[in-house]
């Protein structure tokens, strides 16, 4: 049971959210407790959403003490909270090791969506993204990812609302923290966990090809989004260094495998950068690439301004022209509705500002 061995590696206890229900069942069995206790623990964590072992009142004190000896609750200190005029709320949380992460709650007509972070920093190196400015510090544990949604739900509890959808699109590359991400998903979708519908969860990857195949073989109903941002190898390598590890043709082949294996649609995310990848010829070339995906959907994203980057936004009329070219070629395309721009809600922007003060 490798998650529970974490305390042997770095001297700390595993987090109480680090375990799936199946892993709790194993831990309970190893500790000589009745099997139903695992379900009770899960209920306290994700239905009642308590924040201390002493609150688990239907567990014997001996078990509560044992839990306290072996596990910790995730430390997430609210460093900053910004509310946008559109209802978006962005949090900067400090973890137990003083590293900072971002979590965003976005309000839609259909409910509340939470955007979670999977790594402290990012090593992918996309040249238009604030998340990569300081490189990768470390992976988050499953519990640190899960705690972001639990914390968001606790905040929504005050108004009788609930988290209705999740996007794994915050700081970091989820497919480079794959096992933790999958544990996170197991807890999110479990009926005894937060019980979020699989089709209400989307995971985004920059194109870690081996794990696209792996994710396809999981046969989940979780949505997959691919950050593509260019229609060819040369341009994509300039914008996204990950393309040098996993070239464009390999990425497209992996996406075709995913569609064939799952029968599900892929969303291709395309950040439009003025004068870089937003010309009519780019739209035509992208349409030709995606014609092999009959259910493909392109999400056009006006690039967020990042002080340390040189990219500018594509003019509004050019965005619509790009969209029309795709649709004329039978490729479905929408323009992402901007949210939280007045509170630096794009990935990594708030953390980057925080780090300027000498924080981690």
UniProtKB/TrEMBL annotation:
Top-level division of the source organism's lineage: Bacteria
Localization per Swiss-Prot or TrEMBL: Cytoplasm
Primary subcellular site in the record, as a coarse category: cytoplasm
Keywords: 4Fe-4S, Cytoplasm, Disulfide bond, Iron, Iron-sulfur, Metal-binding, Methyltransferase, rRNA processing, S-adenosyl-L-methionine, Transferase, tRNA processing
Catalysis performed (reactions): adenosine(37) in tRNA + 2 reduced [2Fe-2S]-[ferredoxin] + 2 S-adenosyl-L-methionine = 2-methyladenosine(37) in tRNA + 5'-deoxyadenosine + L-methionine + 2 oxidized [2Fe-2S]-[ferredoxin] + S-adenosyl-L-homocysteine; adenosine(2503) in 23S rRNA + 2 reduced [2Fe-2S]-[ferredoxin] + 2 S-adenosyl-L-methionine = 2-methyladenosine(2503) in 23S rRNA + 5'-deoxyadenosine + L-methionine + 2 oxidized [2Fe-2S]-[ferredoxin] + S-adenosyl-L-homocysteine
Domain Radical SAM core: 108-342
Cofactor-binding details, from the entry: Binds 1 [4Fe-4S] cluster. The cluster is coordinated with 3 cysteines and an exchangeable S-adenosyl-L-methionine.
Cofactor(s) needed for function: [4Fe-4S] cluster
Residues the record lists as binding S-adenosyl-L-methionine: 172-173, 204, 227-229, 304
Enzyme Commission number(s) from the entry: 2.1.1.192
Other comments on record: Reaction proceeds by a ping-pong mechanism involving intermediate methylation of a conserved cysteine residue.
Function: Specifically methylates position 2 of adenine 2503 in 23S rRNA and position 2 of adenine 37 in tRNAs.
Protein name stated in the entry: Probable dual-specificity RNA methyltransferase RlmN
């Amino acid at each position: 049971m490798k998650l529970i061995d974490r305390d042997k590696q770095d001297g700390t206890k595993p987090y109480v959210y680090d375990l799936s229900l199946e892993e709790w069942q194993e831990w309970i069995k190893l500790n000589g407790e009745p099997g139903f206790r695992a379900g009770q623990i899960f209920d306290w964590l994700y239905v009642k959403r308590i924040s201390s072992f002493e609150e688990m009142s239907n567990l014997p004190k001996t078990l509560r003490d044992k839990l306290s000896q072996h596990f910790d609750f995730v430390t997430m200190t609210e460093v900053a909270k910004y509310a946008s005029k559109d209802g978006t709320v962005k949090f900067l949380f400090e973890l137990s090791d003083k590293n900072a992460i971002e979590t965003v709650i976005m309000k839609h007509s259909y409910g509340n969506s939470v955007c979670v972070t999977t790594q402290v920093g990012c090593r992918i190196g996309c040249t238009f993204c604030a998340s990569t400015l300081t490189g990768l510090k470390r992976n988050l544990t499953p519990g640190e990812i899960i705690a972001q949604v639990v914390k968001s739900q606790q905040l929504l509890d005050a108004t009788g609302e609930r988290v209705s959808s999740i996007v794994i699109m915050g700081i970091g590359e989820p497919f480079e923290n794959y096992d933790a991400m999958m544990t996170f998903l197991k807890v999110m979708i479990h009926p005894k966990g937060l019980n979020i519908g699989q089709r209400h969860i989307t995971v985004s990857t920059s194109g870690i090809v081996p794990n696209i195949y792996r994710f396809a073989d999981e046969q989940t109903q979780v949505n997959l989004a691919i950050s593509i941002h260019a229609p060819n190898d040369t341009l994509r390598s300039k914008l996204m260094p990950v393309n040098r590890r996993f070239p464009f043709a390999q990425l497209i082949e992996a996406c075709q495998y995913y569609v064939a294996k799952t029968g599900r649609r892929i969303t291709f995310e395309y950040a439009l950068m003025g004068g870089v990848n937003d010309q009519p010829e780019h739209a035509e070339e992208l349409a030709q690439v995606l014609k092999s995906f009959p259910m493909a959907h392109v999400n056009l994203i006006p690039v967020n301004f990042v002080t340390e980057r040189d990219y500018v936004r594509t003019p509004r009329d050019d965005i619509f022209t790009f969209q029309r070219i795709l649709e004329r070629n039978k490729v479905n395309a929408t323009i992402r509705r901007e949210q939280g721009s007045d509170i630096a809600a794009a990935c990594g922007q708030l953390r980057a500002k925080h780090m300027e003060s000498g924080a981690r």
